[in-house]
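User: I'm putting together notes for a lab meeting next week and I want to include a structural view of one of the chains we've been expressing. I don't have a solved structure, so I'd like a prediction I can at least talk through. The sequence is below, exactly as it appears in our construct file.
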Amino acid sequence: MQRLSTDALPHRDRLAFVHDFVGRHAVGMEFRPLDAENLRVEIAALQLPHEVLLAEARYSPIAGARTRALLNDGRDSYQLMIHTTEHEASVEGRTELKVAPGALMILDQSVHSSCRLPRTALKVVNLDRARLKRLVPRIDGEACYVLPDATPGLGLFAGYAELLRRSPPQGEKAASLAAGHLYDLVALLLESAVSGGAARNPRSLGAARLELVKREVRARLGDPGLGIESVARRQGVTPRYIQRLFEAEGTSFSDFLRERRLEHAYCLLDDPAGVGERTIAAIAFDVGFCDLSTFNRTFRRRYAMTPSQVRAEALRRRG
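Assistant: Thanks for the context. Below is the predicted structure for the 319-residue chain, given as structure tokens.
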């Protein structure tokens, strides 16, 4: 993930940075600040295989345009944007648009377009035209699509893209799979928006959903009420659907949850710097176990050591 900000530049150099790097290199637009004295741009970008670019940005008020001169810059992609504030956009062949916060705007970068942005934060995904067109053959029927935030599947797409930004896939194979999931999720989103529909890949959709479920489990390990039912409600799917996703990996939701809790407990017990700060019982409860005897029994079965033995070894290393 590459991160850049105008805050790191002298005031006199900020406009050139926005014009040359952000405008020409990152998003292929010309920008004009609406408040030049307080110009501020932050951008973070991650490149994935299959011509996928993930980015997030924050802007002070600014106007941007994909000018006709820039249409010859070789970009052949669709740009997908979700803004936190309402903004105005104009796309060749369409009347001026008011795009609501949280809506997804899918824009063909081969056409002239412009926008006026108030102070805003946005998420951006760039996808290769040819690859997306194989999944959505009639996508070029429109130069721009605006999907409301309530569109089925939009939360899954936005959540998966955010997961990749926060935890980039490690290794070429994982990165390639993740990029493929994004194309499939966008194809699903466009099924109802594009005349003639779109292809969809259930395996990729399931993989993206499973990653979001796992992320939620890891974030809520200390919640003793964490269970498949509560996760399913938050994800907007059925418990049985989540169970099938884990079964496809040869495991179960409860096994995954228990393993993550045991791993977290082991790390806490094995940390020499933290030895003595909390009792074993406190650690067991902190990672989500409700019963100390159950924790001790499952821990010993998993690691062939008792929690006390792991802690004693950590004490020995600390000296």
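A couple of points you could mention at the meeting. The first helix runs from residue 11 to 27. The two ends are 39 Å apart (CA to CA).

User: Perfect, that's what I needed.
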